[in-house]
Amino acid sequence: MTKADTLDKIGTLHIVATPIGNLEDISERALKTLADVDLIAAEDTRHTGKLLSHFNIKAKTFALHDHNEKQKAQQILDWLNDGKDIALVSDAGTPLISDPGYAVVNLCREAGAKVTPVPGACAAIAAVSCSGLPTDKFQFIGFTPAKSQARQQFFKEAFESGITSIMYESTHRIMASLDDLVSALGEQQQVVFAKELTKTYETFFSGEVSELIAFLTDEPERQRGELVLILPGKGKETAAITPEAQKLISLLEAEMPLKKACGVAAEYFGLKKNALYKAIIAQREE
Ligand code: SAM
């Protein structure tokens, strides 16, 4: 048997993204891959079973989650070496992005196995793309820490990084997290909140953290669902400045103090007064 024959016999591990809410976001390639592979490693086989049956795909699945992935990794590599093609999916979105799969991909790569992505939805990317914050540089920093003090430090470091920071947050922790955000960076800190992306109750809110707290407290229902938080980096809180607002502020500044000019422009364009003022100051300091 030649080396090429041997390589042909090695299977491929496909890292397949699935929708984060709207089932129409699944790609044709994802459907084809899931239908064609010998086995599907799923974070939750029942959850993935529903997705597969929606698309009329009959496939063998097995569980691969945080608690067994280290043990399963070698088994997956052995199957690949036996020529089996395997897909790895998580409950939603792109596997390995705050989801299981790292131990498997790492082992397979180190062993020289074929690992290929079938890209698709990812809540972090969907959220930042619509956030209105700078996207030339950004970082994804996973879930906020569980403890208050660690969370405050986490927010400070995110802000100090100077670039847009995307983080995941759980519904039961959102209010405590926002209180920590106030403690860490002040109640006027700009923040973007993206909820239930691609679903019926998709919501974007951008403004000061105190305004977001009021928005979520007014109707506690708004705290429910899947959430992404995004912070602008220090000195990059420029999203609130539209070119029109900038022009008006320049004109008004000849007649009044900057803060007042920002207030008038904010009122005229329906922007947040403090955020606009802060953004102008930050822009000028740069
Ligand atoms: N791998 C997934 C991805 O690619 O987005 C993320 C998995 S992580 C375990 C789940 C977290 O992602 C949720 O707690 C929430 O923070 C975020 N998330 C997932 N789906 C979302 C959606 N439709 N809207 C907003 N956030 C979402």
TrEMBL record:
Cellular localization per UniProt: Cytoplasm
Residue span, Tetrapyrrole methylase domain: 12-212
Coiled coil regions, renumbered to chain: none
Pfam family, one: RsmI_C
Gene3D superfamilies, A to Z: Cobalt-precorrin-4 Transmethylase, Domain 1 (3.40.1010.10), Methyltransferase, Cobalt-precorrin-4 Transmethylase, Domain 2 (3.30.950.10)
Catalytic reaction(s) noted: cytidine(1402) in 16S rRNA + S-adenosyl-L-methionine = 2'-O-methylcytidine(1402) in 16S rRNA + S-adenosyl-L-homocysteine + H(+)
One cellular-component annotation, GO: cytoplasm
InterPro entries, per database record: 4pyrrol_Mease (IPR000878), 4pyrrol_Methylase_sf (IPR035996), 4pyrrole_Mease_sub1 (IPR014777), 4pyrrole_Mease_sub2 (IPR014776), rRNA_ssu_MeTfrase_I (IPR008189), RsmI_HTH (IPR053910), SAM_MeTrfase_RsmI_CS (IPR018063)
Documented EC number(s): 2.1.1.198
Keywords: Cytoplasm, Methyltransferase, rRNA processing, S-adenosyl-L-methionine, Transferase
Domain RsmI HTH: 240-283
GO molecular-function terms, A-Z: rRNA (cytosine-2'-O-)-methyltransferase activity
Biological function: Catalyzes the 2'-O-methylation of the ribose of cytidine 1402 (C1402) in 16S rRNA.
Family the entry assigns: Belongs to the methyltransferase superfamily. RsmI family.
PANTHER family: RIBOSOMAL RNA SMALL SUBUNIT METHYLTRANSFERASE I (PTHR46111:SF1)
Stated name of the protein: Ribosomal RNA small subunit methyltransferase I
Native species: Pseudoalteromonas luteoviolacea
Organism lineage: Bacteria, Pseudomonadati, Pseudomonadota, Gammaproteobacteria, Alteromonadales
